[in-house]
Design a protein that fits this description.
Bound molecules: ligand C2E, calcium ion
Number of helices: 23
Radius of gyration: 39 Å
Helix content: 40-55%
Distance between the termini: 115 Å
Number of strands: 22
Strand order of the largest sheet: 13-14-16-17-18-19-20-21
Mean pLDDT: 89
CATH topology of the largest domain: TIM Barrel
Number of domains: 3
CATH superfamily of the largest domain: EAL domain
Shape: elongated
CATH architecture of the largest domain: Alpha-Beta Barrel
CATH class of the largest domain: Alpha Beta
Strand content: 15-25%
């Protein structure tokens, strides 16, 4: 008989029970209870009355109601109370059933264990059991559970809770749509590095607080690690999701104050919708990530919505990446040379080497299609070395010893080997170092390290000339010109394009030319396409120009022919316009 197995034999165990009773009565919150065959509660101990905060007399009536007093939950299906009732109805034992009860107006948790008692005829004689108040334990468990699922610094949900919630939300997303926002702070590393980790932590806490303030209680804000956050918003409306993202961006952009210090930080957001864009956590996270990446490349501090076309772009890039690796090995690159014209003499003063990729299927690709990927993958270092060697070797064989300009990627400047490589190439090709000009962009100066500065100085001392390329784009600070003795500044073609239309561009060009003169730098105007631009540049006293007006970038052999041709280019006279040509 099943029931008999769990039952306590009354006579045999009376002594043991007495012992246990003493034990329990002495421990803080455990107590024993007993009923008769009619389930009426027998007089309870003082201990229980204390724990329950009600008089001993109030414990009269039928078990379990008489014992529990006011409970916090009804005996609805699946509840602990219902399980208890069922066990009692069957007169079967029960173990560690946790019931939320109300003690003096406060919610507490009681755990009950009970066994049926059988008399000597094997008939049910009542229940005998133990109860304990496990509220403290429960709270501790809750605390532990909370900590396991929340970020200890910001108290936002952590990866564990985020991922649970996202899985759940995906399972339900056909019924209830959601939006997933992935957020990444802009320039957080700089804050951390310059103001210290304590301030960095304070920023994260404050940022979390602002994010929390932008979402509703049934949405979930999480910190996924570092300066990455995510929000799950219950909504089917794209506009609403974007609005939340914008609100977060706008709030976080407001300055923070820490110990009298003003800290400003931005955040970028990627947004994706479920089920519209996908219905699994993996897909949604990938989508939001792609959108976030786009937000970052679109200038940060903005929100971008996922678009399937983003996948295609990534796919396309991946294919290109693999092809680029093969191209390096297969030697599919060629150099074209664009002549640089001396505006005082009309003679070719040099050429800029510009790379092209002879793609087996897609034909001749311009650098805009692959340099960025070569930089991302680090292949630019290898490609850059090839360009340098090829250009120097070609220039060494030119009929006229004009200069050769080679573009250097910022990544190449971070290579410790760079100076050694350049010197070795000059040596092995026999090119006069004074004929080599290395073009670097402003961003090199922006996040320069001691090492890049040292490299520039070593090259300078080796007799190689250094030019600042694309001047005027990006950060365009004249202070770079003071930090390093550049031999040349190349004014970006965006300034040349509007020459004659935009007054401001003229004054910027004049300022650069004036400064360059004082600092002994040559100025080259890029992208000169018509006579009017050339005439204006000549009138401003600009030294050199490069552009389609004179020559497009030319294949190596064509450039040598052009260079061999005697005589200067005819330059427009000052003040003439393109129409008057
Ligand atoms: P960049 O250094 O500013 O090179 C000048 C670009 O302007 C070239 O484009 C050239 O074809 C174009 N250009 C010249 N004159 C005109 C003009 O009158 N009008 C217009 N609209 N454009 C003109 P390209 O060859 O497509 O090169 C683009 C960029 O790719 C270069 O800009 C440079 O940043 C990069 N690049 C090219 N070759 C190399 C290389 O060997 N290594 C590295 N790291 N970057 C390279
Ligand atoms: Ca250049
Ligand atoms: Ca340029």
């Amino acid at each position: 008989n099943e029931r008999a197995i769990g039952a306590i034999r009354l006579e045999e165990n009376a002594a043991v029970i007495k012992l246990l009773l003493r034990d329990f009565e002495e421990s803080a919150s455990d107590w024993l209870w007993e009923t008769n065959a009619e389930l009426e509660l027998l007089p309870v101990s003082l201990r229980l009355a204390q724990v329950a905060r009600r008089p001993v007399e109030s414990f009269s009536g039928v078990f379990p109601a008489a014992l529990l007093g006011e409970t916090m939950e009804s005996a609805r299906p699946g509840s602990a109370l219902e399980r208890l009732h069922r066990a009692i109805a069957e007169r079967s034992p029960f173990r560690d059933v946790v019931i939320p009860v109300l003690v003096a107006g406060e919610e507490r948790f009681w755990s009950l264990t009970g066994k049926p008692i059988l008399d000597k005829h094997g008939r049910f004689a009542g229940y005998h059991g133990v109860g304990s108040d496990i509220t403290g334990q429960r709270r501790q468990q809750e605390q532990i559970a909370f900590l396991a699922r929340h970020d200890s610094l910001t108290r936002l949900a952590n990866r564990v809770l985020f991922s649970e919630t996202l899985h759940q939300a995906c399972d339900d997303c056909e019924a209830t749509g959601i939006a997933l926002l992935c957020l990444d702070l802009d320039n957080f590393k700089t804050v951390n590095d310059t103001l210290g980790h304590a301030t960095g932590d304070a920023v994260l806490v404050a940022v979390a607080e602002r994010i929390r303030g932008c979402v509703r209680e049934f949405d979930l804000a999480a910190r996924l690690g570092g300066d990455e956050f995510a929000v799950i918003i219950v909504t089917e409306e794209i506009d609403e999701a974007l609005q939340v993202a914008k609100r977060i961006i706008e709030r976080i952009a407001r300055p923070f104050h820490f110990d009298g210090q003003l800290v400003q930080i931005g955040v970028s957001a990627g947004v994706t919708m479920a089920p519209g864009d996908g219905n699994t956590p993996a897909i949604l996270l990938k989508n939001a990530d792609l959108a976030l990446y786009r937000a970052k490349t679109d200038g940060r501090g903005v929100a971008r919505l996922y678009d399937p076309e983003m996948d295609e772009r990534v796919q396309g890039r991946r294919i290109l990446q693999a092809a680029l690796r093969r191209a390096v090995a297969a030697g599919e690159f060629v150099l074209h040379y664009q002549p640089v014209i001396d505006l005082t003499t009309g003679l070719i003063s040099g050429a800029e080497a510009l790379i092209r990729w002879q793609h087996p299927e897609r034909g001749l690709l311009p650098p805009g299609e692959f340099i960025a990927i070569a930089e991302e993958t680090g292949l630019i270092v290898e490609i850059g070395e090839w360009v340098l060697r090829e250009a120097c070797a070609a220039a060494a064989a030119w009929p006229v010893p004009v200069s050769i300009a080679v573009n250097l990627s910022p990544l190449q400047l971070r290579e410790p080997q760079l100076v050694a490589t350049v010197l070795e190439v000059l040596q092995s090709t026999g090119l006069d170092p004074a004929r080599l000009e290395l073009e670097i962009v402003e961003s090199v100066m922006l996040d320069h390290t001691e090492q890049t500065e040292e490299a520039l100085w070593s090259l300078h001392e080796g007799g190689v000339r250094i030019a600042l390329d694309d001047f005027g784009t990006g950060y365009s600070s004249l202070s770079y010109l003071r930090r390093f003795p550049f031999d040349k500044v190349k004014i970006d073609r965006s300034f040349i394009r509007d020459l004659g239309y935009e007054k401001d561009d003229s004054s910027i060009i004049l300022a650069i030319i004036g400064l360059a003169e004082r600092m002994n730098m040559v100025v080259t105007a890029e992208g000169v396409e018509n006579n009017e631009q050339a005439a204006l540049l000549i009138s401003y006293g600009c030294g050199q120009a490069q552009g389609f007006l004179f020559h497009r970038p030319l294949p190596a052999d064509v450039f040598v022919q052009v260079l061999s041709r005697p005589g200067p280019h005819s330059l427009p006279a000052q003040g003439t316009s393109a129409a008057a040509e």
